[in-house]
Amino acid sequence: MSDTKKLLPKVNKSGFFEIRMESVGGLGANLAGKVLAEAGVLGMGLNGVNFASYGSEKKGTPVKSFVRFAEPDFEIRSNSPVEEPHILVIFHEKMMKTMTLTQGVDENATVVVNTARTPDEIRAELKLYGGTVVCVDAIKISVEEKVKLNTTMLGAIAKASGFIDKAALKNAIAETFKKKYPHLIDANLKAFERGYNELSVKVFKPDNRYEYVSFSRSVPDIGYENAPIGGVILNPGNSISKDLSASRTGYIPLFIKDKCTNCGECEITCPDYCFVWEKGMDKHGKEKNILLGIDYQFCKGCMKCVEICKFDALKKELESNHDVESITIRHTEFVLK
Ligand code: SF4
Ligand code: SF4
Questions:
Q1: Ligand showing the shortest atom-to-Cα distance for residue 267
Q2: What superfamily would CATH give domain 17-204?
Q3: How many CB atoms lie within 10 A of CB 320?
Q4: Which CATH class is domain 245-334?
Q5: In Å, what is the CA distance from 76 to each residue of 29, 64, 107, 173, 275?
């Protein structure tokens, strides 16, 4: 690299500034990575790449989006996953419950989290060794501005980075929406501004409370050498141990028991078996299945049940207005030992 003025605040030993976004399908992390790389390359003159890893492209499945920047005179020839990010972005705080997200994050890194909670609470839940924690309530902002939460997260990332040019990023957002969705440009730029400004930030020095977690690639338990004869899948995809709550984008279906006629339409409409029933009696003393409520662990917030219910017994409500844990009715037969 030459001695010309540097655009990046720091680089790793390979010469790159690296960002890893941890998300689930449907939240727009893939697009956010593309827009960010475009802003860096076309708007700031950096070299940059973006690539993502995801499974079935299904809403709710894990997604990783990577952005790698280098100074203009330094080529990028690598598209391997970002193992030790300068910035880790967590698109949905529910992901922290089920996945270890902080691999390779040290005290020099910044962790940007979509959450209404404080940096102290997030550090404790992540068991973060050290680093800067940046919290932004992106779901609230995106619901209020009626956009997806990725542009809000881009605002927070730009501010947290300390070097990503705000105007370049806003321009890249506008260019992205210009062709197909020009009517969404203003709302997304507003969400970006709010993401940029409505942050809480705290720096944590390593203090021996939590250990550093180094990066490791997940290795399948079963391969060609030890798969059981017949290729039996021992851990099939299922909706018993899965937690789909990270797929919700700010709304839940709220059950209003008084209005429910136990017609069962919601049960046959819900794709994820969220409704919990018990045997009971109707007002004529006839045996009937009675709807108790919703197991929100499996609810991805698609609102199909709200659309189908003719009796207004299900209502689309802001998740932030309710304590979801306390209104969840568990599928007790599914409690895993
Ligand atoms: S569709 Fe509505 S009325 Fe029918 S069982 Fe479901 S919540 Fe109750
Ligand atoms: S919003 Fe309704 S239909 Fe959709 S997953 Fe949740 S409970 Fe099921």
A1: 1
A2: Pyruvate-ferredoxin oxidoreductase, PFOR, domain III (3.40.920.10)
A3: 14
A4: alpha beta
A5: 22, 19, 25, 24, 50
The answer to whether the 17-204 and 245-334 domains have the same CATH topology is no
Q: Measuring from atom 2 of ligand 2, which residue has the nearest CA?
A: 305
Does residue 294 line the site of ligand 1, with CB under 6 A? no
Residue closest by Cα to atom 4 of ligand 1:
263
Q: Which atom of ligand 2 is nearest to the CA of 298?
A: 5
- Domain positions in the chain are 17-204, 245-334
Per residue in 18-64, pLDDT tens?
A: 999 999 888 899 999 999 999 999 999 999 999 998 766 566 678 89
Dump pLDDT digits (tens) for 149-183. 999 999 999 999 999 999 999 999 999 999 889 99
Whether residue 288 has pLDDT greater than 50: yes
Q: Which amino acid is at 284?
A: H
Ligand 1 pocket check for 270: Cβ under 6 Å: no
95 pLDDT tier (thresholds 50, 70, 90): confident
Q: Tell me the CA–centroid distance for residue 230 and ligand 2, in Å.
A: 36
Pocket lining: 276 vs ligand 1, CB cutoff 6 Å: no
DSSP-derived letter for residue 39 is I
Which two tokens mark 110?
A: 């910044």
With CA atoms as reference, report the closest residue to 1 among 71, 76, 77.
Answer: 71
Question: Is the Cα dihedral 155, 161, 166, 172 positive or negative?
Answer: negative
Residues lining ligand 2, Cβ inside 6 A: 253, 269-270, 272, 274, 294, 299-305
**H or E, element range at 66:** strand 62-70
